[in-house]
Amino acid sequence: MATPTSDRGSSSTPTTFDSIPFTAGIPMASAVSDAGAGAAGPGLGWRDPPKGLELSQVHYLVRHGERTPVRSRLTHIFPEKWNLCRAGREFDACVLELTPTADNSIPPFQVGQVDSRKSATMYSSIMRMRRSVETESSISGRGQKDEEGECLLGELTDLGRLSTLRFGRELRSLYVDRLGFLPQLLTSKDHDALYFRSTNMGRTIESLEQVIRGLHSTAVQPNTQGQFIPKVLVRNGTDENLLPNTYGCSRLQALDKAFAEAAARLHNPELEQFDSQLEAVTGTKPRVDGRPRLNGIVDTVKAAQAHGFPMPAALADTRMLRKFEDAVVAEWFSGYNDVDPEKRTEFRRLAMGRFVNDLANRMSSRAEKGQQDPLKFAVYATHDTALAGLLNTLDVFDGRWPTFTSSMGVELFRDTSAPTSSSIFSRAARLVGFKSAHPQQQHYVRVRYGDRDMKLPACAAQGKHFDGRPELCTLEAFMGIAKSLQHPKGWTWEQQCAVGQGPRSSK
Fold it and tell me: Would the keyword Transport turn up in this protein's UniProt record (predicted)?
């Protein structure tokens, strides 16, 4: 296993995994100015709403926890193998089992559909498994002995599991223990009240599982009648809207590529001032479109920092790292704020428009139907590009890369003190095509990023927020944002994504 040193060529004592503090870099433990963008501390920065406002629905987006780098880079500085993934190596796998027979015979193979729930010859079972990482060197150089806890590239580490577990505990502490918004003990009757969704990646699914473990009380015993069994929803890649989906949208991919190339032209000249400093320790010059790309270097450094690795002096220069971050932020997110309003709107619409409209529809349904719409609490496990994308779309991005386990909350409040008004809600509902059947009280939406309330520019005007509390957007104003992200001709996302697309292969 490679070991990092304090500088390239240094003879200082190498760092081993055993010497790294396990709690290093946990956002939940240090909600201070340097904790990272979007980090939340104890209490999640909750601020009581004005008297008369009652919490009605909550949505939380959370970036996955700390992980290993997505590619193997800078291995002369940091370990090539990260043995930080012990917790997920043993697990219970769901397997299909055969019902024992008197003669231990195997039933004939069944062609067509198989339903183990109705079969007399098979049933679903649980089998304990252990998983390890295999490499070429583990076969040719060391036999087939694996290293305990070795991580795959981009894998959620034990630290990432802990920080997302702690985030789930904070959700429970606030919304269950303090506010009583969710019950102390979830049962099967609460299934429709909670919504859990993740992108189809191991690190987000595992992060969501840890969040649920922190949110869901362990008081209920397994196999107890009426127990709450969380359902995690995952979409196919082509349908995903929890992040800017360049995989499923060729038009967005083309726009994204063009903005990345523009960022390279803009920032590469300014990055030249750090050539000698970075080249001395990494052997490469910092370039947005370099080899490795600058975002890859930044990704590796941030992952190493989060896990407590010592930084070579050349990589600990905060001014240099901030310039690198600015360049990478421009590479990934400049499309949301392009000077051309048409391109800016198109990029926002394709990248995050569908998800914003999903949020608006869920909140409008709750506002219109009240308790008849059972959804109260939703958690979405996603990525840095989703949080930054949503913040940019709402015009509240601070230019800093979202840290591991950063979070964004969207809360719906009902004004119980104001008289009912059919006109306010019906105007808001019409903005996103929702039909209101009953008069409704005024509703407000609050967006929180980490510990901070976000004051949305779209809600800044008088009458578009709660008087004296600009962070509390009227639902009508928020739904206006969703409306602005719909195609003016009513095109579907798929139709928009096909713009400029050449002939497709028949394969």
Answer: no
